[in-house]
Automatic annotation (TrEMBL):
PANTHER family: STEROL 3-BETA-GLUCOSYLTRANSFERASE (PTHR48050), STEROL 3-BETA-GLUCOSYLTRANSFERASE UGT80A2 (PTHR48050:SF13). Residues 202-346 form the Erythromycin biosynthesis protein CIII-like C-terminal domain. This is Erythromycin biosynthesis protein CIII-like C-terminal domain-containing protein. Coiled coil: none annotated. Residues 340-352 have a biased composition (Basic and acidic residues).
Length: 363
């Protein structure tokens, strides 16, 4: 949601009307950002709070109900362009088959999407449901990749025409204190991965002996009362990362692309504990570690094994210079602004496009 909302805000500020179609669970975030939200009428319900198996994720990504609802929405209220999430192949296929012009928004590494995702269990599951994910990606009028090219191995190989690295979409960066006290932010996923409470407790135990303030956020799926925080730790259900990261020295996460890019944008090294092997988290962690700006640990790591890794990343060292270098590169590529620029360029070239509820223009 954050990359799509940030690009939408840029477009709205330039006078465009932007509306969202999504799950009912998205309504609050979309409304808080000031946009219209229409809930799917027939698509499968979805909640990140319920532990989802790979089969449940497959059913959601391949849901043709999204495509039916999307085309129905466009018939009622046509749009000049549709921006579709890169994982919603049920919706993307409907756009391609109806010759509706669309842009794909990739909020992760392209190397992951076109590699392990398309060629792994989830991509194979798409094909088993008679979807054509590769064709749907290729059918987009443009593809916006909201990440840092040097971290995405996919940027180092040839791509189909239309792939555009716009840069990570991160919130505005607040001022950083001149001499902040040592502080660590520990924040795992808002999605209910199995065993996440146990993983978070291991991290808290490992951070208990650090000479640092520790801030831990549980998100909606972990009950704070199930945790035993050390004396140097404060636990919150939710704290906006944009508010706390300027005062942090280190970020610990599960390898979520958005949180990782936001941490690096603040020049912060990152410790990654991936929660799921099929998702992009291991690749995100490996890229950060490979750039020298952090480390990756197993989700089964014990507090005794985690403690020296945390202490090393909290200390001074070359990992801080590496994180600062990546941070400068991210700040030089304002993803929301660049994404809105590319969308406007496309609209200027073809201001109106055929699609449901709109006849093809005569030449």
């Amino acid at each position: 949601m954050p990359p799509a909302l940030a690009i939408a805000a840029q477009l709205a500020g330039r006078g465009h009307r932007v509306r969202f179609l999504g799950h009912e669970a998205n309504r609050a975030a979309v409304g808080a950002a000031g946009f219209e939200h229409e809930a799917y009428a027939t698509a499968r319900p979805f909640s990140s709070r319920a532990p989802g198996s790979p089969l449940a994720q497959l059913a959601m990504f391949a849901d043709r109900g999204m495509g039916r609802d999307l085309l129905d929405s466009l018939r009622r209220s046509p749009a000049d362009l549709v921006v579709v999430d890169c994982l919603l192949f049920g919706a993307m296929e409907a756009l391609r088959e109806s010759a509706t012009r669309y842009v794909v928004l990739e909020h992760l590494y392209d190397a992951y999407l076109r590699g392990p995702w398309l060629h792994g269990p989830l991509g194979l599951g798409m094909r088993a449901r008679r979807l054509r994910p590769t064709r749907s990606l290729a059918g987009a009028a443009a593809t916006l990749v909201a990440t840092l090219p040097e971290l995405d191995a996919g940027s180092r190989r040839s791509h189909a025409e239309g792939l555009d690295f716009v840069g990570p979409v991160v919130p505005p960066l607040g001022p950083r204190p001149e001499a902040p006290e040592p502080a660590v932010l520990i924040s795992l996923s808002t999605y209910a991965f199995p065993g996440m409470t146990r993983r978070l407790q291991s991290l808290l135990d490992a951070a208990g002996d650090l000479d640092a303030r520790v801030v831990a956020t549980t998100g909606p799926v972990i009950d704070p009362s199930d945790l035993r925080p050390p004396t140097n730790t404060e636990v919150h259900r939710y704290v906006p990362h944009a508010e706390v990261m300027p005062r942090m020295s280190l970020v610990v996460g599960h390898g979520g692309h958005g949180t990782t890019m936001q941490a690096l944008a603040h020049d912060l090294p990152v410790l990654v504990m991936p929660m799921h092997p099929f998702l992009d988290q291991p690749m995100v962690g490996a890229s950060v570690a490979g750039a020298g700006a952090g480390a990756v640990v197993r989700r089964s790591a014990t507090p005794a094994a985690l403690a020296p890794v945390l202490a090393g990343l909290l200390a001074a060292g070359p990992h801080r210079e590496a994180a600062a270098r990546l941070g400068a590169a991210i700040r030089a590529m304002p993803g929301a602004r660049n994404g809105a620029d590319r969308i406007e360029e496309l609209l200027r070239r073809e201001p109106r496009a055929p699609g449901p509820g709109r006849p093809a223009a005569r030449r």
